Amino acid sequence: MDIESGSYQNIAKKESWRTVLTLAFQSLGVVYGDLSISPLYVYKSTFAEDIHHSETNEEIFGVLSFIFWTITLVPLFKYVFIVLRADDNGEGGTFALYSLLCRHARVNSLPSCQLADEQLIEYKTDSFGSSSSSSSMIPQSGFAAGLKSTLEKHRVLQKILLVLALIGTCMVIGDGVLTPAISVFSAVSGVELSMSKEHHKYIEVPAACIILIGLFALQHYGTHRVGFLFAPIILLWLLCISSIGLYNILHWNPHVYQALSPVYMYKFLKKTQSRGWMSLGGILLCITGSEAMFADLGHFSQLSIKIAFTSLVYPSLILAYMGQAAYLSQHHVIESEYRIGFYVSVPEKLRWPVLVIAILAAVVGSQAIITGTFSIIKQCSALGCFPKVKIVHTSSKIHGQIYIPEINWILMILCLAVTIGFRDTKRLGNASGLAVITVMLVTTCLMSLVIVLCWHKSVFFAIAFVVFFGTIESLYFSASLIKFLEGAWVPIALSLCFLAAMCTWHYGTLKRYEYDVQNKVSVTWLLSLGQTLGIKRVRGIGLIHTELVSGVPAIFSHFVTNLPAFHQVLVFLCVKSVPVPHVRPEERFLVGRMGPKQFRMYRCIVRYGYRDVHKDDIEFEGDLVCSIAEFIRSEAATAVTAAAETNGEEEDERMSVVGTCSTYMQGIEDQDDDPDKPGTSEIRSPKPLKKKKSKVKKKVRFVVPETPKIEKETREELMELAEAREGGVAYIMGNAYMKAKHGSGLVKRVAINVGYEFLRRNTRGPRTALTSPHASTLEVGMIYHV
């Protein structure tokens, strides 16, 4: 037995390592594409104007020393050893850090949050994988407790935290514009060595634009068909640049390794002074794409990303930069400024093959940042910080492969504009560098709060983290910002535009929700209204989409008073996002009853994480009806117990956690083949698993009639639900027109009447959240005076 169990553990261990190594290989094409192609333009951007390559080699050795320590300290020490541990249930990125802070400090930008959301499994799990109950037992320092209390009490600080996260997000979007431009342009610039400068400038820009147009035009097909080629391309590129670098080191200057000493950084700054400080904006480009290690964490594992970087990416990049420095240290006569780039250090016979590989690698790196931009905009939209956009899932098997048509064409136009407008690596590098370092600064600030509030570490550790990495990044940030007029204004302008749109949309969304809360009506009012207006019930299911989690929305009372009729089964549906990356299927639905049983009115709250995939209308309808049917069964099964528990309590809406149909797959055949239960087979909703059912029992507390009536009424209710489903499902949605109240301030009137209404009219409507069929959708217009 011991031998068998030991061999089984060895097999399992080998399989796990095989999986990790496979993920590490696949991460090359998704995570490290942008970082791997940085040797194409770092030296060229650094020596553009600020400093010049002299025969003493102090400049080239100083730049190499800066590159080595920058790559070592930021991507390796900061991200690989520290930041990657701050995952949000396996997800990474700016919003992952913000989500962690929202849960641990109760700082939430989502207005429709409930206490029931805190019972989600992923909500109760911290970044180390332990439950919140165990982490809450860890004693907090006085500073941490005070900081948490301050954040929870002051809404201004919560807004500042949200704006900080949005600034990082906007810079990522700006990077999605600039990275494809500089990557493709730098790769194509290899033709400059094969023709005169007068001719190659007419080739570079058109060729780069054609590649960029093709890249964006093919986005709607997705990358799942050619994605398997991404990792081999980047692997081939890394082997190529590391081999060329090793050749240049051995052939031109074997002693170039001495330049890795920090002493050369001091000599470099001492000789170049202010010009050397300004050149840091070019050196900064060597860590372009480092944030992707954290942002794309959800597609891979921490260990796979660490293995790929430490074993392959990091040594390949160091060899590539050392090889270029070794070549340039023996070639001081530069015919023109563009001959200090990457391709000049490539042996002449290999230049054309390397050029082809570089273009392919640039396309792969650009594809990764474009997909990342789509993903982060989806997260912003889910958290109410970006207008509704159409999200197309290009692959049913690969998580995170999405396409947003509007954003894709906006990115393409902006990318072509900066490529044609700048036409050189220097200004493109200045723009890209500022976007990259700003995202890193935001990550450093949020990470310091995570260390104190989420990890419960000493405040001195957080201060040391901010001071050490913040100082390095602030140095590069200042060097990039000083070049505002030389291209650095582009990411600032783009970020301000996107930030204004995000803040305006978020402000308008909050005001709309506040109006709904203030003007909602009670279920009692709705029931009494039926006797006054003579409301008729028609066949079918009516889904009233609302943002409220309690009460009747004003949009429905507006609809009923003008058209006194609604469906035989009425479901008040709230589709909302919660500050976790994913919601498990068994926790997806919260179902409750509104009013007496005979009125057949329900409330259903559908919860999605900010990275969850929303289902299409047909599958969603099936899951919704199944969840209501399962709620009816669970209510009947727990009726006696619930009645005893709620004896003497005030009757109100109580919600039950019900999973999707996929979590109740056992028992389908038994349910459908049972002739003694008419009506249940029509709904096609099987019985839940026993362990799930026991969890539901604890949450459902309803007062129902005594036991002899339960079976009959339950059967009738299920049959009526099945009949209503056959009659069709109608989606009733509100289309609110926002107007600022008379006497409102100028800022509010501009934000609501101009900004929010412009975004609402020119973006997707409320149907986007549900992907409801056009023929079954009824939009009810109403003016909101906020």
Automatic annotation (TrEMBL):
Keywords of this entry: Ion transport, Membrane, Potassium, Potassium transport, Transmembrane, Transmembrane helix, Transport
InterPro entries from the UniProt entry: K+_transporter (IPR003855), K_trans_C (IPR053952), K_trans_N (IPR053951)
Domain K+ potassium transporter C-terminal: 540-785
Keyword Hydrolase: no
An example molecular function term from Gene Ontology annotations: potassium ion transmembrane transporter activity
Coiled coil: none
Membrane-spanning residues: 20-40, 60-81, 160-182, 202-221, 228-250, 276-295, 307-330, 350-377, 398-422, 434-453, 460-482, 488-508
Any single GO CC term annotated in Swiss-Prot or TrEMBL for this entry: plasma membrane
Name of the protein in question: Potassium transporter
Organism: Microthlaspi erraticum
